[in-house]
Amino acid sequence: MIGLALLAGFAAAATAQEPTPRGRIALSFDDAPRGQGPLYTGSQRAEALIETLRAVNAPPVAFFVKTDGLGSEEGRARIRAYGEAGHLIANHTNSHNWLSRTDTDAYIADIDLAETRLDGMPNRRAWFRFPYLDEGTPREKRDAVRTALTERGLRNGYVTVDNYDWYIESLWQTAVRDGREVDLAALGAAYVDILIGAVEFYDALAITALGRSPDHVILLHENDLAALFADDLIEALRARGWTLISPDEAYADPIAAIEPQTLMTRQGQIGALAVEAGIAASTLTHLAIEEAQIEAFLEERHVFSAPER
Ligand SMILES: [Zn+2]
Which of 84, 94, 228, 248 is spaced 20 to 30 A from 211 at the CA atom? Predict the structure, then answer.
């Protein structure tokens, strides 16, 4: 006990300046190129997001592209700009359907169409992210798409940290539409706190289910929140001992090679592996994936002024 106390004292002294190392995490942004947001046009957002990431020396991040947005020159220019800034470009289908609700052949054709439309973009990666993280039910459909991905040399661009950043953005959009004042500093702080909570929830779950902290990939969206606050998120992660890494590194983790057999994939790779380890899916809940809780959290933080009566 004395030895442990001494070690703990030494560790505390040694880490007075530096936080205790936690783990490693990569950022990924889905649904690019998204349309007009509460603050930015698409082009303004792309410029702001690239600059926000550059300002904190972020490693490359991944953009999972919904390629129906590449019909316009503006959409193509944004994805090209992300690639030219050193970020990684990958497939999120053309039309963003639920696999479980879509004919299997049509779904695979939509993946192929997205690959074709991404042709010539810089910094491509052979990764595929399932829209809504829906890897398919029933099993036959799930397996047919897994086989199709393997045949095409595409790997599952899974996430380990699920959250509803898109819901925070939609509440912001609604507040603007309703004429409510928005406290951007409070909005950014709430966004960061909700996401840090999600990272630490899935990391603790991984330690319970796998016995270790894997290299993480957080799901984010190419939205105005990211363009404004990705730097704050990165700095908050670093302050808590997290190391930011490229998705290239994260997808080299051994969990990348595991194809979960459970059909419960909607919370990403750690959620699925936790269910396979015997953890009840019903217990996998936290603030960042509960719409009512997110709404209450933003009200509690006074992010938006009182609604007009
Ligand atoms: Zn998506």
Answer: 248
Cβ–Cβ < 8 Å for 26, 249: yes
pTM of the model: 0.93
What gap in Å lies between CA 127 and CA 97, rounded to an integer?
A: 17
* pLDDT values of the chain reduced to their tens digit, one per residue, 309 residues: 444 444 444 444 455 578 888 999 999 999 999 999 999 999 999 999 999 999 999 999 999 999 999 999 999 999 999 999 999 999 999 999 999 999 999 999 999 999 999 999 999 999 999 999 999 999 999 999 999 999 999 999 999 999 999 999 999 999 999 999 999 999 999 999 999 999 999 999 999 999 999 999 999 999 999 999 999 999 999 999 999 999 999 999 999 999 999 998 889 999 999 999 999 999 999 999 999 999 999 999 999 998 776
Torsion of CA 14, 246, 158, 212, to 10 degrees: -20
Identify the CA nearest to 268 among candidates 132, 167, 155: 132
Could you tell me the domains of the chain? 22-300 (3.20.20.370)
Nearest to 268 by CA among 203, 191, 185: 203
Encoded tokens for 68: 């129906």
- Which 3 state secondary structure label does DSSP give 43? helix
- Ligand 1 centroid to 133 CA: how many Å? 8
Structure tokens at 2: 């004395």
Least Cα distance to 287 among 147, 190, 203 occurs for 190
CA of 111 to the centre of ligand 1 (A): 13
Find the 252 Cα to ligand 1 centroid distance in Å. 23
**96: CA distance to ligand 1 center in Å?**
6
Q: Which two tokens stand for residue 301?
A: 């933080």
Residue 264 burial by Cβ neighbours in a 10 Å radius (0-12, 13-18, 19+):
middle
DSSP 94: S
Map residue 138 onto helix, strand or coil: coil
